[in-house]
Amino acid sequence: MAKGDSLADGEVILRRFDADAGRANHWVEPDDGSPARLTGAAFGFKPSKSGWGDECSIYQDSELPSLGIGRKNCIQRNQVGWDIATSTAEAVRGVKVAPPGKQGEPNPFGVVEDRYPKGVKRAPRRDGAHAEIILGLTGSARRRWVSTLANTFKREAIY
After folding, report:
1. CA–CA separation, 33 vs 46, rounded Å?
2. What's CA 141's distance to the chain center, in Å?
3. Alpha carbons 157 and 155: distance in angstroms, whole number
4. pLDDT tens by residue, 98-107
5. What is the Cα–Cα distance from 104 to 94, expressed in whole angstroms?
6. Which long-range contacts (CB under 8 A, 24 or more apart) does 117-120 make?
7. Helices marked H in the chain — which ranges?
8. Which of 106, 150, 109, 105 lies closest to 132, judged by CA?
9. Among 153, 132, 119, residue whose Cα is nearest residue 60
């Protein structure tokens, strides 16, 4: 797979987030006992240097073993209290948002390969599993889409 290629639907993707930020910021624990999930605040979309749109870093779970690492290695040493949430490429591309009284809008998300985004030299091993969620949308609808995207991710405690 080459940089920019779309990830397979079944690929499990990981998003690291600040679990210590707590309920008010990056994650919520539903009262019905279902797994904790991320909020839109846990997705820091930034302008893409490649011109794809805005991007948010994720990791490909299936690539970690070949790099000799596990999920906990996606967390940087200075990110004490951080954790991992998982989803699939298919779930991200399947997000639907239908404003009241309107038909659903086209999904603006892509999920693409982006190994070693800063180059291989001195890169952490986890960068060999790096990928991006691409968001090709600006404006007021963006918040609604990112919030709905967050609902596809479930918290997976790694410590």
Report:
1. 33
2. 19
3. 6
4. 766 666 778 8
5. 12
6. 117/57
7. 89-93, 141-150
8. 109
9. 132
b/e burial code for range 74-87 (CB count within 10 A of at least 16 → b): bbeeeeeebbbbbb
Q: Would you state the torsion angle of the CA atoms of residues 10, 152, 105, 135, taken in this order, to the nearest 10 degrees?
A: -80
Over residues 102-128, the pLDDT tens digits come to: 667 788 999 999 999 877 788 899 999
In terms of DSSP H, where are the helices of 27-140? 89-93
Tell me which residue has tokens 């870093």. Answer: 57
pTM confidence score = 0.87
Structural Rg of the chain based on CA atoms: 15
Residue 74 pLDDT class (50, 70, 90 cuts) = very high
Residues making up the chain, counted from first to last: 159
Where do we find the tokens 């990981």? 14
Distance (Å, whole) CA 101 – CA 81: 42
By the 8 A CB rule, do 152 and 92 touch? yes
User: Both tokens of residue 115?
Assistant: 């190994």
Q: Kindly state the tokens that stand for 18.
A: 């600040």
Q: Identify which of 110, 115, 140 has the alpha carbon closest to the alpha carbon of residue 60.
A: 115
